[in-house]
Amino acid sequence: MGDDTADSHDAADDPEYDPDARERGHPIDSNALLIAAAKASVGAGRLPDLLRRADGYLRERADEYDRRFERVDDEEGVATYLVPEDHWTTVGDDLGLNRREVDALRRAHEQHLLRVGTRRRRRREFETALELREAAVIRR
Predict the structure, then answer these.
(1) pLDDT per residue as tens digits for the range 75-88
(2) CA–CA separation, 36 vs 137, rounded Å?
(3) SS (H, E, C) the chain
(4) Looking at the domain assignment, is residue 133 inside a domain?
(5) Does a structural domain hold residue 16?
(6) Which ranges are annotated Basic and acidic residues under compositional bias (predicted)?
(7) What is the pTM of this model?
(8) Which residue, 1, 82, 129, 138, has most beta carbons within 10 Å?
(9) Does residue 20 form part of some domain?
């Protein structure tokens, strides 16, 4: 029992530990989730499940994302990348998702990037980047 307490304490001391992301099961900022749900053509209750599935998929490939794509932010155990324009179509195909579900994932990750841009005073830069690329957010 003492070991469990020590493990919990160690995790909480880790600067990469984000208890909110672990509880949600995906890295998307809650406000970005609300905006994406309002714009998406899937039910708001369905979006968190889609995000958890996508997060599992992306986390399995995190090393590949580090090698292949531009990481534009890395904070609180969440890495944000700019990826090719067809990224979410490919992910959706791999996960067996329909067009609306893919669009909802793309919007959620895009909104998360824009919120990061606002916090970092880089929103215009990220808006411009999203004209050519998509965003992918991976929980670490």
Answers:
(1) 878 999 999 999 99
(2) 14
(3) CHHHHHHHHHHHHCCCCCHHHHHHCCCCCHHHHHHHHHHCCCCCCCHHHHHHHHHHHHHHCHHHHHHHCEEEEEECCEEEEEECCCHHHHHHHHHCCCHHHHHHHHHHHHHHHHHHHHHHCCHHHHHHHCCCCEEEEEEC
(4) yes
(5) no
(6) 1-12
(7) 0.79
(8) 138
(9) no
Which amino acid is located at 11 in the chain? A
Which whole number is the average pLDDT over 88-107?
96
Its domain, for residue 98, covers 27-139
> Residue 82 forms beta bridges with which residues?
70, 135
Lowest mean pLDDT among 14-23, 56-65, 72-81: 14-23
Tokens 């994932």 map to which residue? 105
The token pair at 115 is: 């919120």
Distance of CA 4 to CAs 8, 9, 43, 77, 140, Å? 6, 9, 38, 22, 22
- Residue 31 is predicted with a pLDDT of 82
